[in-house]
Amino acid sequence: MDKFRIEQRGGALAGILNRPEVHNALDSDLRAALADFWDRVREDPEVRVAIVAGAPGSSFSSGRDMKETAKAYEAERPGADWELGGRTGYPADTPPGKPVIAAIDRYCMGAGLKIAAECDLRIAAATAVFASPQAKVGRATESPLYLRRAGIPSAVALDMVFTGLRLDAAAALHHGLVSRVVGPDRLMAEAWSMAETIEFFSPTVVAGLKTGLDAELGDLPASMASSLWKKVTAMYGDTPDAREGAKRFVSGR
Fold first, then answer.
1. Each residue of 137-192: pLDDT tens digit?
2. Which residues sit opposite 26 in a β-bridge?
């Protein structure tokens, strides 16, 4: 059974984690497949938007494959293959350069939560559970950083990292970690629908939004951010997309 599958619908590409028997724990093979997936999203001009999800009915990801890590230590190695080779599978380490939707069901924990947090949009099944348990198993973590960037309030983020607090889907929606919660049977349909909407929208504006967000301009003072946003996003002015949009509006399309 392939640990990772790819599905494509038009300009939308989905990467499906497929180790359901271990809740999609991230071993070196799966991380390498994710890194290759982000490369493909970035380099394929036909791809406009990406989705990452677990196979239907399985967890998004329970995080690091601790059995692989334990075996590496038993063999007197400093880490698993992915740690030594740098193919982490995290979107921020192999930037896809295009919008990514994380469709999350069941466990989304540790390294799995990091992947989800580094996506642009996150939607969850009502059965999703979010947690950052790294301190429990002695793993270093950047959780406070990426959880805060993903919109989690500081008090909640610190409760998650220091005590292992778990958030269910309703709490994740309340705190802004996800933007939508749907039934498990509707999760992928919702993700594909979102991707189709993004694909239909202006390529210039969508690409500009992604560029501005990846540059983290929102972390700058407003007086600086606005000026830089206009320069780096290249979505303003008399663009072909702006002309086409005006024609569509007038014609009622």
1. 888 788 999 999 999 999 999 999 999 999 999 999 999 999 999 999 999 999 99
2. 64
Three-state secondary structure call for residue 217: helix
What are the pLDDT digits (tens) for 19-30?
999 999 999 999
DSSP 98: S
**Do residues 57 and 184 touch, judged by C-beta distance below 8 A?**
yes
Cα separation, 132 vs 110, in Å, equals: 5
Pick from 71, 58, 59, 74: nearest CA to 28: 71
Quote the tokens at residue 203.
Answer: 């390529």
Neighbour count for residue 53 (Cβ, 10 Å): 25
User: Token pair for residue 141?
Assistant: 């973590």
Q: What's the CA gap between 221 and 201, in Å, rounded?
A: 29
Q: Where does the pLDDT of residue 72 fall: very low under 50, low under 70, confident under 90, or very high at 90 and above?
A: confident
